[in-house]
């Protein structure tokens, strides 16, 4: 979700140019950037072109789409990915208009002739409310990311437990397998099966992306495992890690033994 903080931009929609000019001039002088339109169709274009628009002020009764239909169309286009507030103006005082506006989720309702100071107070209140909604949406995104990472970690843990159980149920290793196990440096013994899988693939010179494809996990999860392996084995970088697990390690080490 794209989040836009700071001074909110206004979209003013009314088929009466005098009202549009009056509102935009007053609210502009109060520090708000304004986009103006005299029709719902043009307002929709402006809304789609400018993601900074966060409050829509619209006349209720206009040719073509009315104010409520306009807001519903903007909500449809936003598809839950964009947060905005809406205010409706009308020259009529029928209670049915108010009820329809409230049922449509309109944040506030002002009757013409418009009291500019009241409109300003409404905008400031809605701006605060919108910022709170943006912060809630951001926190929700962060929680969803943490939940996804936790889900992946639990899946990896389940996999490691399954591997460990299988390993414990297997008969003792043959002599050749025992030799192969001894080739792994002792400081790798504390790694979990999945951490050891990642370390061995690093030893083969594979990249994080290749390891993620090999093990069926995300690249971010691979990075997490690499960091854990380096920390637990006291290695400084993946090059040192790869050399420690290289099949030729013992042969290269023997050259320095006299």
From TrEMBL:
PANTHER family: NITRATE_NITRITE RESPONSE REGULATOR PROTEIN NARP (PTHR43214:SF41), TWO-COMPONENT RESPONSE REGULATOR (PTHR43214)
GO molecular function terms noted in the UniProt entry: DNA binding
Keywords: Coiled coil, DNA-binding, Phosphoprotein, Transcription, Transcription regulation
UniProt superkingdom: Bacteria
Annotated InterPro entries: CheY-like_superfamily, Sig_transdc_resp-reg_C-effctor, Sig_transdc_resp-reg_receiver, Tscrpt_reg_LuxR_C, WalR-like, WH-like_DNA-bd_sf
Record's protein name: DNA-binding response regulator
Modified residues (4-aspartylphosphate): 59
Source organism of the structure: Pseudomonas marincola
Keyword Cell inner membrane among UniProt keywords: no
